[in-house]
Amino acid sequence: MRPPLPPLDGRLDTFDLHVGSAVELLRSMWPDLRPVRIEIAAMPSHADPDGLPRWLVDTEAQRIVLFRVPIERLLEHGHDDALHRRVAIEGAVFRAAAQYIGREPWEMDPRGFDE
Question: 55: closest CA among 35, 70, 75?
Fold first, then answer.
């Protein structure tokens, strides 16, 4: 028997875990997202006029790329704790998915916000 594996507690591991959880939820509610490849990259290859992008949506290639460093590091001062990082990660996934299917981010949960 091998010893138990250490818990996933590194920044990369938790980023992947939060992205995976949000993607799983969205795919269960939006069949249009099931064939989409969700990828994670450290940084975008370039900035755009609006600043540093946090994701890239490529509908032709059925692909969404989330950029880990801008999502995690460009939080407002005082909001860079674990909870705000998780909200930023999940929010980026929801906003990128909404952009992909042509919806507003708050429309992504068809059950609404009352549940």
Answer: 70
Residue 1 has a pLDDT of 63
Distance CA 104, CA 99 (A): 7
Q: Please state, in angstroms and rounded to a whole number, the distance separating the CA atoms of residues 71 and 89.
A: 6
Tell which residue, 72, 74, 54, has the closest CA to residue 64. 54
Q: Report pLDDT for 30.
A: 94
Which tokens hold the place of 62?
């059925």
Amino acid at site 1: M
Helices (H), the chain: 11-29, 68-73, 82-101
> Is a pLDDT exceeding 50 seen at residue 115?
no
Average confidence score pLDDT of the chain:
87
